Amino acid sequence: MRNLVLLKAELTNEFKPLSDERLIATFSLVPSDKNTAEAILTDGKGAEVELPAGMQFRFERVDLSELLIKSKEGEVVFVVGHTA
User: Fold this and answer.
1) Of 7, 16, 78, 81, which is most buried with the most CB atoms under 10 A?
2) Which CATH class is domain 4-83?
């Protein structure tokens, strides 16, 4: 059975995981369209990717605790999906 995943992550200028605990999900990551700076996403092993405000980025069966994200203090991203 799949469960709904609906998270609002408030960002800081330091990388932090999207989830504090292991959470494998299929989801869209959406930086708020009200953000004034791009969010930066990484898995800590490879390149850092810039995520523009208002764009949707789809992930399939990814552990949210392994994704690290940062931006300007107070910016927000939303995670919308379901458990894998």
Assistant:
1) 81
2) mainly beta
